[in-house]
Amino acid sequence: MNSRSHMKTTMVRSAALAAAAVMTCAAFGCSSSSDAAAGREPGATSGAGAGAAGGAASDATAPAGGPRYVLVNGAFLGAWSWDGLASRLAARGAKVTAVELPAHGTDTTPVSGATLDAYVAKVEAAIDASAADGPVVLVGHSLAGVVISQVAEERPDRIAKLVYVAAFVPHDGQSAQDLASTDAASHFGPALVIDAAHGTASIALDQLQDVFCADCAPGAIATMQAKYRDEPAAPLGAKAHLTDASFGRVPKFYVYTKQDHAISWALQQTMTAGATFQDTATLDVSHAPFLSKPDDLAAAILGFSSR
Asked: CA angle 120-122-123, nearest 5°?
């Protein structure tokens, strides 16, 4: 590629990132800013470590014989957020893979490479790597509800169960942005700041507790703040493409979070009313039960094992 073509491609990508960010801000009712004004570099982290762009998913060691759980984080989080849940599932004999989504946690994929397709491909790679274990239990939190839904559409035979934890449940043609824009009770939109120039969304560190984990202990809040990264904006507006023939035939389960300030209890009820779930569990917790109440979350997910 010559320099002029490379420059044109870069400009097109930058314009696409900016457009996606502006649309995201309009949908969430957030404010707009720049990384420079916020005192951060584009795509900034707050103490997160570096990792390979194609970083491998992390595995928890466990006795042989249990099912494989594949855990997918939501926005502003990384594979690290599942550590407490993963250790509890492993203690019960499960094999666990926590996927590091592109541009999250320690993954160094640039924001321009963070797309719904890239998220789906990363999860599918983790599922393929565990083919010897048979169909997996695929668990998604928050934004990852859209991701695991799309994975189920593309790999229905490789998934034994879909488990949504305080997660978006899209219909065909819906995005996380579409669903979040209807959530009048959420604290997420007002806390969100969009940087259209760099295609990212951010939340002030002092607002993470209210939005994500109002019931977290101080240590968990400190960890969340230390590992914080700005969120790629484009995947928030990416629409799922789902069919009854594929996505529709995968058994689904939901863990409700009644004290949720990010995806409200009311929206969770509305989303699940339009879908068929084999079973549900309700926890009186905030948006991140894997940080505040990992024992309760593990019990809820393991309780689905006989269904």
From this structure: 65
Domains of the chain: 3-302 (3.40.50.1820)
Characterize the bridge pairing of strands 252-257 and 231-232. Answer: unpaired
Q: Is 146 in contact with 168 (CB distance < 8 Å)?
A: yes
Identity at 89, one-letter amino acid code: L
> Is the Cα dihedral 295, 298, 300, 305 positive or negative?
negative
pLDDT of residue 38: 37
pTM: predicted TM-score of the whole model, two decimal places: 0.83
Q: What is the pLDDT of residues 115-147, one digit of tens each?
A: 999 999 999 999 999 999 999 999 999 999 999
Nearest to 282 by CA among 182, 272, 119: 272
pLDDT per residue over 184-196, tens digit each?
Answer: 999 988 999 999 9
> What value, to the nearest 5°, has the Cα angle with vertex 229 and ends 102 and 6?
55
Roughly how many angstroms between the first and final C-alpha of the chain, as a whole number? Answer: 54
Alpha carbons 54 and 197: distance in angstroms, whole number: 25
